Structure formats: C-alpha cells, structure tokens
Structures
1.
Amino acid sequence: MKVFLKFILFVLFLGNIISCINRYEQKNNEQSLLKLIDKRLKMAPLVAKSKWNTKAPIDDPVREKSILDSVKVKSKKMGIDENLVIHFFQAQFEAGKIVQRQLHNQWKAQNQSLFNTAPNLATDIRPVLDSLTTLLLLELQKNENNSLDAQSIKGFRKEARKIISSKFTNEVVETAIKPLEVYGASK
C-alpha cells in the first residue's frame, strides 16, 4: 500500500512539474508572438509617412487580399488553422490602419506638409512586413494549441500591454490580439 501511495504522489508531482513546464513554454510563446505584433505595429507609422507623402490611400484591399491568400496557403502547409490565420492577419491590418488613420488625422490637423524623408513602401517597408509575416506564422504555429480561459485572457491582455509599445492605444492593441483571445477561448 505504501508503494502504491508513493507512486500516486510521484505521478501527481510529475504532473505538476509537466504542467509548470508547459505553462512556461506557453508564456514564452505568447511573449514571442506579442513581440512580433509589436514589431509589426511599429512599422505602421512608417507606412503612414510613406502614404502621406505619396497621397496613397490607407486601405489597400488588393495588397491585403494578396497577403491573406498567401498566408492561407502557407497555413495549410504548416498545419495551422486557416480561420485563425485569416482572422489574425486581418486584425493586424486593421490595427495598423488604426495607427495610420490616427497619424494622418494628427498631421492633417497640424497642416503637415510632405516629409523631407519618408521610406519607400515597396522597397523599404514591405520586405520587412513580409519577413514579419513569416515569423508571425511560425509563432502562430507554436501557439495554436494554447487555450485561454477567462483568467488567462485577462493575463494575456496584461502581458500584451506590457510588451506592445505604450505609444499604441488600447484600441490598437485589443484589435491586434482579439483573434488570439477568441481562438484561444474556443479551444
């Protein structure tokens, strides 16, 4: 009987250790994903500046569709839920456009003229965004099996606010992370 009791205690102890390790890995994966979201959002002011100088519209449905078609194909090859990927990248586009609109409104109110130096959208910015897209897909793959209960979502939001730059409004951050919360809660 004592051996059986020791065995049960050992199994419970081992289960706790495994649970702690899994939570640690999940937290690291979430942090890596949030850091990439932050990097992508930090590109939005550069996009805004480029579009301001060229008078290009903030919305670019053709470019967005091209990216969504591409990540849809890649998600299938990587075994990532297609719906998560599509909603996640649409949210990244929306969050970036919120930042761009905020800046354009600010510049309009300040009668901002063209900037002396502005990055080229095609040659300077899009290659960076494309590389971030690949990295985001890899992190989504790592995070796909993470489930979030109400308490975890609250912690995830706090973590997002710690990691994603404070220069971005809560609306921007919540827009960017919403699909992760919805998808994680549905698991």
2.
Amino acid sequence: MFAPLALWFLLLFAALPPFVGKKQPPPVRKGKITLYQPHRGQWKIHKSKKRFRVVACGRRYGKTLMACNEIVKFALDHPNSNCGWVAPWFRQSKIAYRFIRRAFAKSQGVIVRKSDSDLRLEFANGSIIQFFSADNADSIRGEGYHFFVVDEAGDALHDPKVWTDAIYAALTDTNGRALIIGTPKGRNLFYQLFIRGDDPAYPEWASFHARTSDNPYILRSAIEAAKQELPEDAYQQEYEAEFLEHGAGVFKGVDACISGVLDENYQPEAGHQYVIGFDPAKYKDFSVITLMDATARRVVRRWYRSNQIDYTVQLEMLSKLAVQFHAFVLMDMTGVGDPLLEALKRKRGFTAEGYLFTHASKKALIEKLQLGIQNRDLSFPDIPVLLNELRIFEYQLTPGRQLTYSAPKGAHDDAVISLALAYFAAASPRQSAASYLDFMREYSQLQQGNQAA
C-alpha cells in the first residue's frame, strides 16, 4: 500500500489572503504542510527539472499520488499560478480532486474556495487547480496554464488534439510545464511523447519507466498472482509498463469488424432473425439498445444510447423495435433490470429474457464477444462511443485472484454489455429463450466448481 498521509514530506508555503484595494498585504505567514514520503522511484521524478516529464508505469506504482503532490507543490510554490489536471473521464478527475481536497481538510486557510461541481480549488496565495475531462477538451482552451498533469495518458491522449490543440497550446504563452503519467495503452501519442525523453532533439523532455514491482509498498505475492492469472500481454502492459504494438485490451481486431452504416430506414429482411441486447441505465450510466441481424451477425438499423430518460419511454421504444423486427430481447436483469424485465414480459409481439450478472456469467458473456470479435464473426458500423468502449475495456485481477473484465475506473461499459448481450443471443437464434438461461447456469456452475477445486 502507499505510505499514509502522516508520512508526507514537509513543504513551506506562504498563506496570503486576497489583496483588496490599496491596503498593504499582511506579513507572510510561514507554515508547514505534510505531503508524502516518496519511494526511490518517485524521488527521481520529483527531482527532475525538465519542462515535460513523461512517466510510463505499471498499476499501483503510485503515479496519481505522486502527481497530486507535484501539482500542489507547484501551486503553493508559485503564487497566482494557473494549474490544470486532465483525466480521460470526468469521474476519474474527481478522484484526484477529492484526494487533494481531503488532504487539506484540517489545514485552515490554505484552500480558500472550492467547487465540487466545477472541480476547482483556489488557494490563499492566488493559485488555482482546475480539473478537466479529456472527452471535453474544449473546456481547457481559452486561458494559459503554468502547470498541467495529464493522468492516464494512454486513454486521455487517445485523441491527439487533446494534447496538441488544448493542453500544449495552453502551456505555450506561459512556458508552462507538464507531467504526463499513465500505464501504456498501445503505441499511441502517449508512446510518442514518452520516447522524446531519449531523443536529443527534445532537450526539454524527460521520460521515466517504472514497473509495478518498483513500488516497495506492493506485495510481491500480489504481483506474482497477476503474472499467473492475467494473459501475458496484459501482464506485460499493466504491470511491466511495456508499450505493446497493439495494446493489451480485451478485444483484439475491433477495427476489422467495422462494416456498414446505421440506416434508420432499414427494414427486416425475409428469412432473417433479429435479436436485441438491452443494458438499462444504473445511476449515472447510459441505457443502450443494440439491434442485431442474428442471421448476418451485424448491428443494424439505429443504435440507441440514452441517459436520464424515463424507463417507461425506453421500454416503449424498445417494444416497438422488437415488435417490428420480431426480435428476441436479452437484457441485463441485475438490480434495476429485474422490474423492467417483468414489464417487458407483459408486452406482446416478442419474447424477452433476462441475463443475471455474476462474476461467472459476466465472464462468459464477455469471453464469447471476445472470441466473436477475434474471429470476425460479427460486424458493427463505425459508432465512436461503442468503438472507444471496446478499445479501453480491460482485464482486472481482484484481491481474491479472480480475473474480471470491466471498463477503466471512471469510464462506461454500457455499449459493450449491450453488444455482448445481442451477440450472445445471436449465437444460436433458433434456440428457445430457456436455452440461453440453461447455458448461463451451466457455465456458472462449472466456473464455481473450478474455483472450488
């Protein structure tokens, strides 16, 4: 585990109330703020004076904790500085925001204003730290920044314009600095920035590579378990921080499956069977409806993704689509999906069944889609949200050494689940609805038996 907050290192700061009118500002008050005790690898990064530092490291190395300390130190050492933090998704930026805010909860007068809705911290010396999401890079533009952290750069810089048009441009007129951190995700822009540290043509850049094992607080048994349980390429990427040519995502060959376009005027084809995968929204997630031609194994018609739309409206839209295509509906019945499934079953003209998510059943669902994409057994149009979710979907290893699949923290996987449900149903379109459930139960029992053994 990381060092507790009580071991943070010491930093002198000047706590200056805002200067008002022509009154002389009060004398500088010196204080001590305890930050953290970096391990040896983190110290090397902290000591670097390069303008741009790129850190490629394995999971649980301590990169976010390190970056939080870097941005706070810069903000307190440089009065009236404008600092920014960007992560791939807004919910992920909240993690760093809340961490810094909580760290100063007992330090009165250091943070004078905070906004939980805007993710903005204002310090007594006039410095500001603003947190952003890479999927809304336009919000970064408009003002200069003196220091910027790019968190999970493998995902945050998936669109190169986030760096070239937003962040780098905002650092130009201030000669600002940047700390770019993350775990590799293929050889994208993050990789291109990383190799600049070894290129004499880029004297302002420094690169640092660190494995998970370089963090002395991580148990070696946990690393060994990951090596045994994860696919080799996933281990090399996530724990050894290697930049693999095509990355180590769950779904390989996504681009080869892109075909056709969404056509709202598409009509059922004679002799073809259709299925619908429905993943209803939970809390702040999205509801996604995927219609698939089970005969051709391709996503057709229109792809539906909605948020904060009344369930009654969603079910009505789903029902009309199912009736028109005589489609079999397979939906997530976990949690909020259970009463929705009962409501669907009361409607006529189509059959609906539920898929209950457990560790074993989700594994079965995802691995079936994984194999289908790998073998190019299905196709889907160029739907940006769907493609992004497929590309970032990842392996995880639980403390109990179970291999799981999920979206990265802060990201969504609703489109993946909807597609997986549709493909699962399309795999044997002539079977009865009960056959799907029987398969799921048998697979779950088999997995539980293997774990017990």
3.
Amino acid sequence: MADTKQMATEGDSPPLGKATVIEEGTAFKGSMTSTCMVVVRGRIEGELSTPTLSVAVGGVVQGRARVGALDSQGQLAGEFDADTARLSGTVSDDTVIRAKSLEVKLISDDKRVVTFGESRLEIGDAPVPPKG
C-alpha cells in the first residue's frame, strides 16, 4: 500500500490518501478486496472489491469488480458494478457496466477518447448483484 498526497496530472490518478497501487509493469491475477482506493497502472485480472477504483492511462482491469466509484482512463473488460462511473478510456467487447450515474468524457485531440466495444451499460437504478 502507498500513502501519498500528490496532486494528479493528466494521465495520473486523482489525489490519494492510502491506496493499493498496481504499478505499470505489474500484473495481478486473483481475488482482491481492499478497504482503500485501488489504483491500477498495470493489470488486474480477476475479482475486485474496493470503495474506489482508479484505472490510469495504460492500466487494464479485466474480470468482475464491485466498487463505490469507478474512474477509468484505461481499459475495462468484464462486469463492473459501481455507484458512480467516470469513463475516458476503452470499454472492451462484452463488458457490462452497472451504475447509478455515468459520466463519459470525450476529447477529440487523440489523448483521451472513450471507445466502446459491444458493451451493455445499465444506468439509473441501484446496481443489482448478478445471479449465480
């Protein structure tokens, strides 16, 4: 875990208190539960539960995630349940995002553009846990 109070710059994560950081060049496979923010600059594959998930540019999260807040500038693939979702990265094919609110940031200068594959977004009601 890292304890940092740095200011974010474009492409970085938001300012942090305590955080679990998966750095660039690091890959994690398995199940992870954290009581603090998870910042992904590398790659996570598996199941994740955290109050806040921040996926930086170049970061990848693939699998299932239950989060309070999702802020992704990287790549998402799988199934995501969040209270709030802010996207400005890539959402892969066959990805499901369930959220009470969704913010999509599109910038046309080729720095940050959201790309949706064949995905399903469910916005508005409280996320309902998947059956099974």
